[in-house]
Hints:
The chain is 76% helix and 0% strand. The protein has 154 residues and is mainly α. It has one domain (10-150). The protein starts with 9 loop residues before the first helix and ends with a helix.
Amino acid sequence: MEDMPGTNDADGVTQLAISLVDAYVRKDRDAVGAAVAEAERSGGIDDVTSELKVYASFLTRRVQETGVVWKPADSREAVARTVADILEPELEFAVVTAWEAHSVGEHEAAERFTRGDPLVFLHMLAAFCAAIGQAVYKPAELISTLRIASGSAE
Length: 154
């Protein structure tokens, strides 16, 4: 596997967030694990999560602009499918449960379901970005669009 970008600077955070979304798009369990490990190693979980929030907002707006119907129930199902067989069962359950609450605006309940584990938010946002992004983009196009939108196009 290629070297993972670090989170020592803004570009590293951006690249790591995109790598995580890409790993989910490709359903690559090892790549998801490597991206998370790099974020943990470099102390950037919160920074990557923040970047993923930006992508989630951007992609939600793109879906709305294209007219694709995307309801909370679609979101919950898509996130559950995206994390299935990638995460350990306990983490998968926490991510899906927290996303169910988050997707209907119950942010306090979502926070409780995470039990303070920042990885739950990291995974749920990355999985959401992968899922909603594929509602309007082909996989390679999604990753390219995120790179362009973030100003890190190669």
